[in-house]
Specification:
The protein is an all-beta fold and about 250 residues long. Helices cover about 0% and strands about 50% of the residues. Strands 1, 5, 8, 9, 10, 12, 13, 14, 16 and 17 form a ten-stranded antiparallel β-sheet that branches. A six-stranded antiparallel β-sheet has the order 6-7-4-3-2-11, with no helix packed on it. Strands 15-18 form a two-stranded antiparallel ribbon. A hairpin with a 5-residue loop joins strand 9 and strand 10. About 30% of the residues are buried.
């Protein structure tokens, strides 16, 4: 939970560091913006080893991209979101579906590995002579070593002002019955409108996925303003499901 107050969000960014090489055979999702809400609408974004999407809005056949970036938003009324609410440069892939709730998503191939990155979402500039009825939020991944920025795509949100919920989350997920790699991911605290968002509290959840007593496959510690997630490939049966670490 951030303590910063923001009247109108124009940018959200999170720095993150990946420590340890992740093989292409592993299905790993690192989400620096694992959950944030603008005007009550849920978004998330991050990088994946096995990303994929539709190569165009007309060709709704999912193709594999390999390592890539993803940016998604969910419906606020559980109704389908049209693909017109997603856009991107050539090379952007798309998906709109309901298998995780009604969502629309943009994806793009991103070369990422061990190193330092920023995941950033920016609101597009608006013509001040026109009334504000909606805004486009565009996501990108920045390699902090080379300075290269890869645009993922943009999603539309209706409204005239855009307020961000100060409760945000990041996560590391192994999906698709993949083996668990040994990797550490360090998430810095978010920046909102280029200003640091100091946390008043930090809670960690270790999902049970419907199991009564599952192993825990990660540890989390906070050092200064950085939350450090380290996977435990063998797991630990300590029964810990959640903890407040700050």
């Amino acid at each position: 939970m951030c303590t910063t107050t923001v009247d109108d969000v124009t940018e959200v960014a999170v720095d993150f560091r990946i420590i340890g090489r992740v093989d292409d055979s592993v299905a790993l999702f690192i989400a620096p913006l694992g959950l944030f809400r603008v005007n009550g609408t849920q978004f998330y974004g991050g990088v994946q080893t096995k990303s994929g999407g539709w190569p165009s809005k007309k060709l709704e056949t999912k193709v594999a991209l390999g390592r890539g970036g993803i940016f998604s938003r969910w419906s606020s009324d559980n109704q389908p979101i049209p693909l017109s609410y997603a856009d991107g440069l050539p090379g952007t892939h798309y998906e709109a579906a309901a298998y995780e709730g009604n969502f629309v998503s943009v994806r793009r191939k991103v070369k990422w590995g061990e190193g330092d990155y920023t995941y950033r979402v920016r609101r597009a500039m608006h013509d001040s002579s026109l009334p504000v009825t909606h805004a486009w939020f565009a996501a990108s991944v920045i390699d902090k070593t080379s300075g290269a920025e890869t645009p993922i795509g943009a999603l539309r949100l209706d409204g005239s002002q855009f307020y961000i919920d100060m409760s945000m989350a990041a996560f590391v997920e192994v999906y698709g019955r993949s083996r668990i790699p040994r990797v550490t991911v360090a998430f810095s605290e978010p920046r909102i409108n280029a200003q640091a968002c100091a946390s008043s509290s930090t809670k960690v959840l270790y999902p049970k996925h419907g199991l009564e007593d599952p192993p825990r496959f990660a540890t989390v510690v906070v050092l200064g303003d950085v939350a450090i997630v380290t996977t435990l490939p063998a797991g630990t049966q300590d029964g810990l499901a959640e903890e407040v670490i700050r």
